[in-house]
Amino acid sequence: MKRTLLMALGLTLASFSVFAKVSQEEADKLKSTLTPVGAERAANKDGSIPKWEGGLTKPPACYGGPGKRLCNPFPDDKPKFSITKANIEQYKTKLTDGQKALFKKYSETYKMNVYQTRRTGAFPQFVYDATYKNALNAEIGGGGETVVNAILGIPYPIPKSGNEVIWNHKLRYRGVGADRWNIQAAVTTGGDFNLVKIREQVMFPYDSKTAKPADLNNVSIYFLQTVASPPRLAGTITLVHETMDQVKEPRRAWQYNPGQRRLRRAPNVGYDNPGTGSDGLRTNDQFDMYNGATDRYTWKLIGKKEIYVPYNAYALHSDKLKYKDFVTKNHINPQYPRYELHRVWVVEANIKAGTTHIYQRRLFYVDEDTWQILAVDNYDSRGTLWRVQEGHFLQAYNGPLDQLVPGSALETVYDLISGRYLTLAMNNEEPETVEKSYEVSFFDPSNVSKQATK
């Protein structure tokens, strides 16, 4: 009996032990066969995915300067081919189940224009340097919920588990902070929609060039979201302090309701509670493709796969487009998205016994070059594919080298059961996103409360 208890205790302790850092020999691959953030440098066997040559690090000739719209660096690129219901069998091994489901549901209108693969993902050199140090020092504990000894760079560039891949997405470099407009549209089955306009101000203390892990006060992201319209939602504020050690302390969140004129703690801002202005078409943890704690799932790293994914979405980001040009019935207008063949990490999440979430199972497809999640398949409790997400990636080049950041022109959530879908992260008719520095005090609840009640 005593031996059994000791074995059980040992297993319990092992599940919360720290692990992840790699050997010197493995870390040195980041300077040879792997890119500085852990992708394969080499082309694939047939050359359809080219060798990584450093990514897109200089603005193209079309760029108008700081604060101006990101323009398309590849205006002369034409589709190599289009995938439609007529030829999908030829390409189905390089499609996600979610993409195949969209072809089946909208067989008469859905298609994917596939372009040559351009590996534009790039980060500043100091991010590469920090990533190398993280490979040697960063650990993961708390059952996957705690990041230890990582700062600034990708925490686990040579991942050994699904949790590590998801942390790489959540902590990928995005600059010191940003001020952006996030426009959302919940689209009806008839193609109608109303816009929800949201201003988002964010600070990434984890991405500071001078910070040390001990300096973070257990916070990796400070996030302030203010709804500007429609009138029924205007003035609603959400404040989030995203924690690094989510076992020690879950996400801190507050919400301000203009009718109550009071900022209140909001523990429901997370997991599968409905996202702001989404008309119930996405959960809180689907924002930025996935965010927040991972403790309701078990995470399995399946491996890498070559998939046609949304990439280099500069055409979708154009300020010459109105939202009505591409937010169309059933799905976004297939004229504008750009798909390319890329290697992605595939991670499977399954609900843990004793926990709840509206999604029983999720499959994540994570870009090897940037660690951005590019697609997600979400299954309900019956095992039915329910909602399909896509993140239309683009590389931001609008500034000095410390502003090289991957981003999204658009995120979509398709509900295969209701036939509705949601778009978010649009800003075509709004000012361009800008990098901005904030003081931590800006995100203090007392300061936010004062600003809200002015």
Topology (elements, then pairings):
Layout: H1 2-15, H2 24-27, E1 81-83, H3 88-91, H4 97-105, E2 112-114, H5 125-137, E3 139-141, E4 146-148, H6 162-170, E5 177-187, E6 195-203, E7 219-229, E8 237-243, E9 252-257, E10 262-265, E11 297-310, H7 323-326, E12 339-351, E13 361-367, E14 373-379, E15 385-396, E16 405-415, E17 421-426, E18 434-435, H8 445-452
Antiparallel strand pairs: 1-2, 3-4, 5-6, 5-17, 5-18, 6-7, 7-8, 8-9, 9-10, 11-12, 12-13, 13-14, 14-15, 15-16, 16-17
Short description:
14% of the residues lie in helices and 29% in strands.
Walkthrough of the structure:
This protein has helices at residues 2-15, 24-27, 88-91, 97-105, 125-137, 162-170, 323-326, 445-452, and strands at residues 81-83, 112-114, 139-141, 146-148, 177-187, 195-203, 219-229, 237-243, 252-257, 262-265, 297-310, 339-351, 361-367, 373-379, 385-396, 405-415, 421-426, 434-435. The strands form 3 sheets. Strands 5, 6, 7, 8, 9, 10, 11, 12, 13, 14, 15, 16, 17 and 18 form a 14-stranded antiparallel β-sheet that branches. Helices cover 14% and strands 29% of the residues. The longest helix has 14 residues, at 2-15. It has one domain (81-452): outer membrane lipoprotein receptor (LolB), chain A, CATH 2.50.20.10. It is an alpha+beta fold. Mean pLDDT is 93; it is low at 1-17. It contains 8 helices and 18 strands.
